[in-house]
Design brief:
about 15% strand, alpha/beta, single chain, globular, about 325 residues
Length: about 325
Amino acid sequence: MKYRNLGNSGLKVPVLSYGTATFAGTNEFFGKWGKTDVEEASRLIDISLDRGVNFFDTANVYSQGDSEIVLGKTLKGRRQQTIISTKATFQMGNGANDKGSSRFHLVKALEDSLKRLQTDYIDLYFMHGFDSETPVEETLRTLDNMIASGKVRYIGCSNFAAWQLMKSLSISEKLNLEKYIVYQGYYSLIGRDYEQELMPLLRDQNIGLMVWSPLGWGRLTGKIRRNQSMQDGRIKSGGDTGAPPVDDEFVFDVVDVLERIANEHGKSIPQVAINWLLQNPTVSNVVIGARNEKQLIDNLEAADWTLPEADFEELDLITKQAPIYPHWVGER
């Protein structure tokens, strides 16, 4: 397994991490993604560790804390071998302060995550989204105090707009507070919005990207193909709820090319799609998911090779998005 520095830090992480949104599946939304119990999760984590993937990504909102509980049980006795990232900000209860990035909410959210994960520190703590109702200074000072306490080692953010991230970095620098070292965002061959505003910012500020949903909400698994009925899986079970809309013909066109390239190199469609992302120099890590051992092993092998330049450029060409304003002005 290849390792890279995680964004603007000295922490080295495998280029792939295992996302645990499929663990537990105890509510309606996440149950459609997967319902991996402790026994199966332990086996999947064994496979990951055997192949050099010691980085596990979760969030408090995944099955309302139950994903963290499953992960904590499976890592008991081997916590020191692993890197854990989790997240806070989204709704965790019915109270007015059961969401957001306020000091009040984050202090409780961190303590709850530590208990569920059965650990006394979090390696990487993400703000899962931007809280427009809390002063950025309040959030950053709270996170800075968490690092000083030893309960958090690094901080990152997810799903921020470019200006929200830049504002946060500027305030951290101005007030001499810990900075976000990594951004976790959606990026796939059928979802390349990241490249227009966020990627130039991350490159300029030396921030790394952790990619979530590298297979486009399951559309690039190979189960969705032209003139074929949909196979059983996350999409068929309704797990694409909330996914950004993508034209079916565009997906079919991309999958056609992925399938041809995969066949030429003896790889799977997901392995080609993930490897394409790993060629982007701003990518520190790609978060892979899996509902079973077969999927996990296939995804882990995406890092074992390098997509030839000609294939990379072909995929780049057929999936490239038209630039948004003002970027098209410069190109024109």
